[in-house]
Amino acid sequence: MKNYAKPLSRLISELSKLPGIGTKSAQRLAFHILSLRDEEAFAIADAINDAKKNMKYCSVCANLTDVDPCMICSDVERDRSIICVVESPKDVSAFERVREFRGLYHVLHGAISPMDGIGPDDINLKQLIIRLQQNDIKEVIMATNPNIEGEATAMYAARLIKPAGIKVTRIAHGVPVGGELEYADEVTLSKAMEGRRDL
Predict the structure, then answer these.
(1) Looking at the structure, do residues 31 and 88 belong to the same domain, yes or no?
(2) Same domain for 81 and 162?
(3) How many independent structural domains does the chain possess?
(4) Which among 46, 78, 80, 88 is most buried, taking Cβ atoms within 10 Å?
(5) pLDDT at 199 (0 to 100)
(6) CA atoms in the 13 A half-sphere facing the CB of 184
(7) Rounded (10°) angle between helices 6-15 and 23-35
(8) CB-based contacts of 164: which residues, under 8 Å, 6+ apart?
(9) How far apart are CA 158 and CA 171, in angstroms?
């Protein structure tokens, strides 16, 4: 960034650390931020500062929240006998957008990945087991990602949970809505066949 003044170079450098933001996108964002009125730019900085200071993990489900327990765990209308296990807070947001699931969540903050040195003790799995022992849970839905790490995590968790007599299910995987069969890979088609249901 030799062509830019130090403050602008620093801003571009920091923005380029964000996921999905390359140098060109960081430059566009930096120039856009500098073109904003002072109050607009400071509002962005204040929002980042506020989120960093006030967001924490729910002591029950480990989702991101500003109150503890979070709004989902505190909602008395939700079905407390079902827990949906996800890898990240972003997954909770995805399910909540659909508005179909009315149970509770448990966020693992990762998935088992021996290649990356991440084992069962490195994710929020112990807390899930403790939670299951302390509550009357009838079903655990494993909603980890449909990749090798997500499958390994789901299988490992299922082996820990099933001896307690709790039903463990896995979300269905398969052909996405709007997708075409000819472009689907073998694993996707196989999962679609396994997850078929009555019409």
Answers:
(1) no
(2) yes
(3) 2
(4) 88
(5) 58
(6) 17
(7) 120
(8) 132, 133
(9) 13
| Cβ atoms 108, 128 nearer than 8 A | yes
Q: What is the domain extent for residue 139?
A: 67-194
Place of tokens 């939670």: 131
Calpha distance 38→90 (Å, rounded): 31
Identify the residue whose tokens are 């694993």: 187
* Residue 84, C-beta contacts closer than 8 angstroms, at least 6 positions apart: 95, 101, 103, 104, 105, 106, 140, 141, 143
Query: What is the model's pLDDT at position 64?
Result: 98
**What's the average pLDDT block by block, 10 residues per block, for the chain (199 residues)?**
86 96 96 97 97 97 97 97 97 92 97 95 96 96 92 95 94 78 78 72
Give me the residue label for tokens 């403050």: 7
- Are 10 and 25 spatial neighbours (Cβ–Cβ below 8 Å)? no
Q: Is 163 a domain residue? A: yes
pTM: 0.85
